[in-house]
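Consider the tokenized backbone below.
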């Protein structure tokens, strides 16, 4: 049976990051499983970068179905966890069950991946402490408050069993590392 990869997101998760992750993992013969606060169609968003803005702009994006709730997650059924970006991590980092899940992956020495704002959850779960990591530039404080070293000059950073990426613009570098970790290229 192909390896299952847990994707953590929720409403206001980054649409492109969710769809790209799902398609890239399926392409590699892996099974992506989307976990969210509730099992339903999620309202995802698009974060884009436009001249004249100090940060990203947000628009409605494609939706995605959550396959299960966080309470349904059994860490032993997955090879890795991937925390997606968007605004969802802003509130998911306060969800005790999400933090428990991410911490359990780390303690089990399974792969932990985070892209863009997903690093907020990794920091809150305590898995960034002592690690080199990258994320969306305005998440630098989260990395540093979580005890990590923020890396500015790399689109993706691998540190031990963790890979972090800056934004959806980092997909080529990020997924090159992710696939190397999962044995898919």
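A designed sequence for it:
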């Amino acid at each position: 049976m192909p390896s299952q990869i847990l994707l953590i997101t929720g409403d206001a998760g980054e649409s492109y990051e969710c769809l790209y992750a799902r398609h890239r993992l399926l392409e590699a013969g892996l099974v992506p499983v989307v976990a969210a606060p509730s099992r339903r169609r999620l309202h995802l968003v698009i974060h884009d970068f436009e001249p004249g803005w100090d940060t990203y702009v947000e628009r409605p994006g494609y939706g995605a179905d959550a396959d299960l709730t966080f309470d349904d997650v059994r860490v032993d059924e997955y090879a890795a966890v991937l925390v997606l970006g968007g605004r969802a991590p802003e509130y998911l980092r306060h969800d005790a069950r999400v933090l428990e899940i991410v911490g359990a992956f780390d303690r089990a020495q399974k792969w932990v991946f985070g892209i863009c704002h997903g690093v907020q959850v990794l920091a809150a779960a305590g898995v960034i402490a002592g690690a080199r990591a990258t994320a969306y530039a305005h998440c630098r404080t989260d990395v540093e408050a979580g005890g990590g070293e923020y890396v500015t000059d790399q689109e993706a950073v691998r540190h031990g069993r963790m890979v972090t990426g800056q934004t959806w613009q980092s997909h080529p570098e990020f997924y090159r590392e992710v696939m190397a970790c999962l044995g898919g290229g």
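The mean pLDDT is 96.
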